[in-house]
Amino acid sequence: MSHSLGAADRQNPPDQTKHTVILDCCGGLNNVDYSEMDLTFLGGLRNYVDPHNSSFVLAVIAIIFNPLFWNLVARWEHHTRGLSRLFGSPYLACYCLGFVIILLNLYRSHSMTVAMKTQTRWTVLEGTEIFYAGVALMVFGTLLVVSSFLALGFTGTFLGDYFGILMDEKVTGFPFNITENPMYWGSTANYLGLALIGASPVGLVLTAIVAMVYSVAISFEGPFTEQIYEERKHHNKQE
Protein backbone atom coordinates (compact mmCIF):
# COMPACT_ATOMS: atom_id res chain seq x y z
CA MET A 1 0.00 0.00 0.00
CA SER A 2 5.89 5.27 -5.74
CA HIS A 3 6.97 7.85 -7.81
CA SER A 4 8.72 11.21 -7.98
CA LEU A 5 7.70 14.52 -9.49
CA GLY A 6 9.55 17.56 -10.57
CA ALA A 7 9.97 20.61 -8.36
CA ALA A 8 7.66 22.62 -10.58
CA ASP A 9 4.82 20.20 -9.96
CA ARG A 10 5.33 20.37 -6.20
CA GLN A 11 5.48 24.16 -6.15
CA ASN A 12 2.49 24.73 -8.43
CA PRO A 13 -0.15 22.10 -7.67
CA PRO A 14 -3.38 22.42 -9.68
CA ASP A 15 -6.28 24.30 -8.12
CA GLN A 16 -8.62 21.72 -6.59
CA THR A 17 -11.12 24.02 -4.87
CA LYS A 18 -13.87 23.04 -7.29
CA HIS A 19 -13.41 19.30 -7.16
CA THR A 20 -14.88 16.72 -4.84
CA VAL A 21 -14.00 13.05 -4.91
CA ILE A 22 -16.76 10.83 -3.59
CA LEU A 23 -15.97 7.23 -2.68
CA ASP A 24 -18.69 4.82 -1.69
CA CYS A 25 -16.53 2.53 0.47
CA CYS A 26 -19.15 -0.18 0.61
CA GLY A 27 -19.84 -0.45 -3.07
CA GLY A 28 -17.26 1.34 -5.18
CA LEU A 29 -18.21 4.25 -7.39
CA ASN A 30 -21.87 4.25 -8.27
CA ASN A 31 -24.09 6.23 -10.61
CA VAL A 32 -21.34 8.45 -11.96
CA ASP A 33 -22.12 10.39 -15.13
CA TYR A 34 -18.69 10.37 -16.73
CA SER A 35 -19.82 12.66 -19.54
CA GLU A 36 -20.20 15.43 -16.95
CA MET A 37 -16.88 14.80 -15.24
CA ASP A 38 -14.31 17.61 -15.07
CA LEU A 39 -11.03 15.94 -15.93
CA THR A 40 -8.82 18.72 -14.57
CA PHE A 41 -8.47 16.86 -11.29
CA LEU A 42 -7.46 13.66 -13.05
CA GLY A 43 -4.97 15.57 -15.16
CA GLY A 44 -3.40 17.06 -12.05
CA LEU A 45 -3.28 13.66 -10.39
CA ARG A 46 -1.53 12.21 -13.42
CA ASN A 47 1.28 14.73 -13.02
CA TYR A 48 2.11 13.16 -9.65
CA VAL A 49 2.16 9.53 -10.71
CA ASP A 50 4.95 7.80 -12.59
CA PRO A 51 3.41 4.54 -13.89
CA HIS A 52 6.83 3.33 -15.02
CA ASN A 53 8.28 3.37 -11.52
CA SER A 54 9.23 -0.18 -10.53
CA SER A 55 7.57 0.01 -7.12
CA PHE A 56 4.32 1.17 -8.71
CA VAL A 57 4.44 -1.67 -11.24
CA LEU A 58 5.08 -4.26 -8.50
CA ALA A 59 2.17 -2.90 -6.47
CA VAL A 60 -0.19 -3.11 -9.45
CA ILE A 61 0.93 -6.67 -10.17
CA ALA A 62 0.31 -7.67 -6.55
CA ILE A 63 -3.13 -6.02 -6.57
CA ILE A 64 -4.21 -7.87 -9.71
CA PHE A 65 -2.52 -11.19 -8.91
CA ASN A 66 -3.97 -11.81 -5.45
CA PRO A 67 -7.70 -12.24 -6.22
CA LEU A 68 -6.86 -13.93 -9.52
CA PHE A 69 -4.73 -16.47 -7.65
CA TRP A 70 -7.20 -17.33 -4.92
CA ASN A 71 -10.14 -17.54 -7.31
CA LEU A 72 -8.34 -19.86 -9.71
CA VAL A 73 -7.02 -22.10 -6.92
CA ALA A 74 -10.35 -22.21 -5.10
CA ARG A 75 -12.29 -23.07 -8.25
CA TRP A 76 -9.78 -25.77 -9.12
CA GLU A 77 -10.24 -27.18 -5.62
CA HIS A 78 -14.01 -27.12 -5.95
CA HIS A 79 -13.93 -29.05 -9.23
CA THR A 80 -11.14 -31.51 -8.38
CA ARG A 81 -10.73 -31.58 -4.57
CA GLY A 82 -7.02 -31.64 -5.36
CA LEU A 83 -5.91 -29.65 -2.31
CA SER A 84 -8.15 -31.64 0.03
CA ARG A 85 -6.58 -34.88 -1.21
CA LEU A 86 -3.08 -33.43 -1.00
CA PHE A 87 -3.49 -32.29 2.61
CA GLY A 88 -5.77 -35.14 3.63
CA SER A 89 -8.50 -32.81 4.87
CA PRO A 90 -10.57 -29.99 3.38
CA TYR A 91 -10.13 -28.03 6.60
CA LEU A 92 -6.35 -28.31 6.57
CA ALA A 93 -6.29 -27.45 2.87
CA CYS A 94 -8.46 -24.38 3.50
CA TYR A 95 -6.26 -23.26 6.39
CA CYS A 96 -3.15 -23.57 4.22
CA LEU A 97 -4.70 -21.60 1.36
CA GLY A 98 -5.89 -18.98 3.85
CA PHE A 99 -2.37 -18.64 5.22
CA VAL A 100 -1.01 -18.15 1.69
CA ILE A 101 -3.68 -15.53 0.99
CA ILE A 102 -2.74 -13.67 4.18
CA LEU A 103 0.92 -13.62 3.13
CA LEU A 104 0.01 -12.40 -0.35
CA ASN A 105 -2.14 -9.62 1.08
CA LEU A 106 0.64 -8.60 3.46
CA TYR A 107 2.99 -8.34 0.49
CA ARG A 108 0.39 -6.32 -1.44
CA SER A 109 0.07 -3.88 1.45
CA HIS A 110 3.85 -3.66 1.73
CA SER A 111 4.27 -3.04 -2.00
CA MET A 112 1.62 -0.31 -1.94
CA THR A 113 3.28 1.35 1.04
CA VAL A 114 6.66 1.29 -0.69
CA ALA A 115 5.11 2.74 -3.85
CA MET A 116 3.54 5.57 -1.85
CA LYS A 117 6.79 6.40 -0.08
CA THR A 118 8.83 6.32 -3.27
CA GLN A 119 6.89 9.11 -4.97
CA THR A 120 6.11 12.63 -3.89
CA ARG A 121 3.34 13.82 -1.60
CA TRP A 122 0.63 16.13 -2.94
CA THR A 123 0.18 19.39 -1.07
CA VAL A 124 -3.52 19.43 -2.03
CA LEU A 125 -4.00 16.40 0.23
CA GLU A 126 -2.05 17.72 3.22
CA GLY A 127 -4.93 19.47 5.00
CA THR A 128 -5.91 18.54 8.54
CA GLU A 129 -9.45 17.61 7.47
CA ILE A 130 -8.14 15.20 4.86
CA PHE A 131 -5.78 13.62 7.38
CA TYR A 132 -8.59 12.95 9.83
CA ALA A 133 -10.82 11.72 7.02
CA GLY A 134 -8.09 9.20 6.27
CA VAL A 135 -7.98 8.13 9.91
CA ALA A 136 -11.77 7.74 9.97
CA LEU A 137 -11.67 5.63 6.81
CA MET A 138 -9.04 3.33 8.30
CA VAL A 139 -11.05 2.91 11.49
CA PHE A 140 -14.20 2.16 9.49
CA GLY A 141 -12.36 -0.18 7.13
CA THR A 142 -10.76 -2.08 10.00
CA LEU A 143 -14.16 -2.42 11.66
CA LEU A 144 -15.60 -3.93 8.48
CA VAL A 145 -12.71 -6.35 8.04
CA VAL A 146 -12.55 -7.52 11.66
CA SER A 147 -16.31 -7.85 12.11
CA SER A 148 -16.57 -9.72 8.81
CA PHE A 149 -13.90 -12.18 9.92
CA LEU A 150 -15.59 -12.72 13.28
CA ALA A 151 -18.95 -13.31 11.59
CA LEU A 152 -17.62 -15.78 9.02
CA GLY A 153 -14.79 -17.47 10.87
CA PHE A 154 -11.54 -18.52 9.21
CA THR A 155 -12.98 -21.01 6.74
CA GLY A 156 -15.89 -18.75 5.86
CA THR A 157 -13.50 -15.89 5.19
CA PHE A 158 -10.97 -17.88 3.19
CA LEU A 159 -13.17 -19.63 0.64
CA GLY A 160 -14.22 -22.61 2.73
CA ASP A 161 -17.32 -22.91 0.51
CA TYR A 162 -15.09 -24.01 -2.34
CA PHE A 163 -13.67 -26.78 -0.13
CA GLY A 164 -17.12 -28.11 0.70
CA ILE A 165 -17.13 -26.40 4.12
CA LEU A 166 -20.52 -24.74 3.85
CA MET A 167 -22.23 -22.51 6.37
CA ASP A 168 -25.66 -23.52 7.68
CA GLU A 169 -27.23 -20.23 6.64
CA LYS A 170 -26.30 -16.93 5.07
CA VAL A 171 -24.82 -14.34 7.42
CA THR A 172 -27.05 -11.27 7.38
CA GLY A 173 -25.99 -9.40 10.52
CA PHE A 174 -23.40 -6.66 10.81
CA PRO A 175 -21.42 -5.87 8.70
CA PHE A 176 -23.28 -7.80 5.99
CA ASN A 177 -26.36 -5.68 6.54
CA ILE A 178 -24.25 -2.75 5.27
CA THR A 179 -22.60 -4.43 2.30
CA GLU A 180 -22.42 -7.98 0.98
CA ASN A 181 -18.63 -7.76 0.69
CA PRO A 182 -17.39 -6.03 3.85
CA MET A 183 -13.97 -7.68 3.71
CA TYR A 184 -13.26 -6.28 0.26
CA TRP A 185 -14.65 -2.80 0.81
CA GLY A 186 -13.19 -2.56 4.29
CA SER A 187 -9.78 -3.32 2.83
CA THR A 188 -10.36 -0.71 0.12
CA ALA A 189 -11.33 1.87 2.74
CA ASN A 190 -8.10 1.11 4.64
CA TYR A 191 -5.99 1.73 1.55
CA LEU A 192 -7.84 4.94 0.75
CA GLY A 193 -7.38 6.12 4.33
CA LEU A 194 -3.68 5.36 4.20
CA ALA A 195 -3.36 7.28 0.93
CA LEU A 196 -5.08 10.33 2.44
CA ILE A 197 -3.00 10.19 5.61
CA GLY A 198 0.15 10.05 3.52
CA ALA A 199 -1.10 12.74 1.10
CA SER A 200 -0.17 10.27 -1.61
CA PRO A 201 -1.54 10.65 -5.14
CA VAL A 202 -0.03 7.27 -5.97
CA GLY A 203 -1.98 5.80 -3.08
CA LEU A 204 -5.21 7.17 -4.57
CA VAL A 205 -4.46 5.59 -7.93
CA LEU A 206 -3.55 2.24 -6.38
CA THR A 207 -6.67 2.31 -4.23
CA ALA A 208 -8.78 2.89 -7.34
CA ILE A 209 -7.12 -0.13 -8.94
CA VAL A 210 -7.86 -2.20 -5.82
CA ALA A 211 -11.53 -1.18 -6.00
CA MET A 212 -11.77 -2.07 -9.70
CA VAL A 213 -10.06 -5.45 -9.23
CA TYR A 214 -12.30 -6.29 -6.28
CA SER A 215 -15.38 -5.33 -8.30
CA VAL A 216 -14.34 -7.78 -11.02
CA ALA A 217 -13.58 -10.48 -8.43
CA ILE A 218 -17.00 -10.02 -6.81
CA SER A 219 -18.73 -10.37 -10.18
CA PHE A 220 -17.18 -13.85 -10.48
CA GLU A 221 -17.20 -14.96 -6.85
CA GLY A 222 -20.79 -14.01 -6.02
CA PRO A 223 -22.58 -16.09 -8.67
CA PHE A 224 -20.20 -19.03 -8.21
CA THR A 225 -20.75 -19.11 -4.45
CA GLU A 226 -24.52 -18.95 -5.00
CA GLN A 227 -24.16 -21.89 -7.38
CA ILE A 228 -22.35 -23.92 -4.71
CA TYR A 229 -25.19 -23.44 -2.24
CA GLU A 230 -27.80 -24.15 -4.88
CA GLU A 231 -26.02 -27.43 -5.61
CA ARG A 232 -26.19 -28.33 -1.92
CA LYS A 233 -29.89 -27.46 -1.77
CA HIS A 234 -30.57 -29.60 -4.83
CA HIS A 235 -28.55 -32.47 -3.36
CA ASN A 236 -30.40 -32.28 -0.04
CA LYS A 237 -33.78 -32.37 -1.83
CA GLN A 238 -32.77 -35.52 -3.70
CA GLU A 239 -31.90 -37.22 -0.42
From TrEMBL:
It comes from the Eukaryota. It comes from Xyrichtys novacula. GO terms for cellular component: endoplasmic reticulum membrane; mitochondrial membrane. Keywords: Endoplasmic reticulum, Lipid biosynthesis, Lipid metabolism, Membrane, Methyltransferase, Mitochondrion, Phospholipid biosynthesis, Phospholipid metabolism, S-adenosyl-L-methionine, Transferase, Transmembrane, Transmembrane helix. The gene is PEMT. One of its GO terms (biological process) is methylation. It is found in: Endoplasmic reticulum membrane; Mitochondrion membrane. Pathway: Phospholipid metabolism; phosphatidylcholine biosynthesis; Lipid metabolism. InterPro entries: PEMT/MFAP (IPR024960), Phopholipid_MeTrfase (IPR007318). This is Phosphatidylethanolamine N-methyltransferase. Pfam families: PEMT. Residues 54-74 dip into the membrane without crossing it. It catalyses: a 1,2-diacyl-sn-glycero-3-phospho-N,N-dimethylethanolamine + S-adenosyl-L-methionine = a 1,2-diacyl-sn-glycero-3-phosphocholine + S-adenosyl-L-homocysteine + H(+); 1-hexadecanoyl-2-(4Z,7Z,10Z,13Z,16Z,19Z-docosahexaenoyl)-sn-glycero-3-phospho-N,N-dimethylethanolamine + S-adenosyl-L-methionine = 1-hexadecanoyl-2-(4Z,7Z,10Z,13Z,16Z,19Z-docosahexaenoyl)-sn-glycero-3-phosphocholine + S-adenosyl-L-homocysteine + H(+); 1,2-di-(9Z-octadecenoyl)-sn-glycero-3-phosphoethanolamine + S-adenosyl-L-methionine = 1,2-di-(9Z-octadecenoyl)-sn-glycero-3-phospho-N-methylethanolamine + S-adenosyl-L-homocysteine + H(+); 1-hexadecanoyl-2-(4Z,7Z,10Z,13Z,16Z,19Z-docosahexaenoyl)-sn-glycero-3-phosphoethanolamine + S-adenosyl-L-methionine = 1-hexadecanoyl-2-(4Z,7Z,10Z,13Z,16Z,19Z-docosahexaenoyl)-sn-glycero-3-phospho-N-methylethanolamine + S-adenosyl-L-homocysteine + H(+). Its EC number is 2.1.1.17, 2.1.1.71. It is a multi-pass membrane protein. The chain crosses the membrane at residues 55-74, 86-107, 130-160, 191-214. Catalyzes the three sequential steps of the methylation pathway for the biosynthesis of phosphatidylcholine, a critical and essential component for membrane structure. Residues 108-134, 220-239 are cytoplasmic. GO terms for molecular function: phosphatidyl-N-methylethanolamine N-methyltransferase activity; phosphatidylethanolamine N-methyltransferase activity. Residues 1-53, 75-86, 156-198 are lumenal. Belongs to the class VI-like SAM-binding methyltransferase superfamily. PEMT/PEM2 methyltransferase family. S-adenosyl-L-methionine binds at V139, F140, G141, E221, G222.
